[in-house]
Amino acid sequence: MNVGFLGLGVMGTPMALNLCRKFPTIVWNRTAYKSAELVRAGAKLGQTPAKVVEESDIVFTMMFDGPAIRSVMDEDFRNALRGKTLINTSSVSVDFSQGMAKEVHEAGGKFIEMPVSGSRVPAEMGNLVGMMAGDKTECERIRPFVEPITSAAIYCGPIGAGLKMKYAVNTFLIAITVGLAESMNLARAQGLDMEAFSSVLDAGPLASPYSKLKLAKVAKADWSPQAAVKDCYNSTELIRTAAAAAEAKTPLIQICNSLYGQAMDSGLGDEDMIAIYRVLSEQQADHSAKPDEV
Question: Which of 265, 268, 259 is nearest to 236 (CA)?
Fold first, then answer.
């Protein structure tokens, strides 16, 4: 069985690397130079997305958003889908996913929705959590092909259920990221020793591998993305839309959306999602620089 992979960004590259260690893999990325690491690891470079589908039995997509996926689904791509299974791991809207499933089925292929929870480090370790949706029998059939990239792949229901699960999980992730950044900013603004702050947090019940990872990145001013600000902002937009459709109150996400929007406006889109700390700390610096009003 040959595996195809479309989209070699921060998440796609380590996912594809883990797959090519177990299966013959053909990859494609819009900017071809990002394929070099995969080719060195033994993957084959596909000339076009349609060629990847033609030469594969199962194809994964990990692209930025719906329009990015739509841009590769030309007539040649659709014609190549017959008898193939397309697994979308990208974060898109439920409406887009349902439309994509319909289009794949009409082309004679099978479609599985499997957004993933986790950032670059879990992706490198093959420890992402997959949220599978679609035909349950097909989900079980392709399970061996998601094992190299996941520590768990949980069936969530029909198409749309995997994405809805991702929105709910990401609501927690984004809220704790902003909460951690705000906590660090308050500690800094009060003049506390930041190493002591990290030690206190690490010693208590709120510590987690995630908090330790993000504390270390801020301490080193390392803003290289494990999950980028632009991805986080996109996620808040999807969550807001989903919450409105479900008539669910999400006041924290409204605030997080505003803050990540400010981060985007500040040119931080390609930095790690914890770079929201920079937005908070720079706002504090701007406020402190202003003369007192009488």
Answer: 259
- pTM of the model as a whole: 0.92
Domains defined along the chain, listed by start: 3-157 (3.40.50.720), 164-287 (1.10.1040.10)
For tokens 């989209």, what's the residue?
7
Residue of 294, 264, 263 lying closest to 281 (CA atoms): 263
Amino acid identity, position 45: L
What residues are annotated to the active site? 166
pLDDT digits (tens, 9 = 90+) for 38-87: 999 999 999 999 999 999 999 999 999 999 999 999 999 999 999 999 99
| The two three-digit tokens of residue 29, written as one number | 């990325």
How many CA atoms are closer than 13 Å to the CA of 139, on its beta-carbon side?
Answer: 20
Quote helix, strand, coil % in the chain, to nearest 5: 55, 15, 30
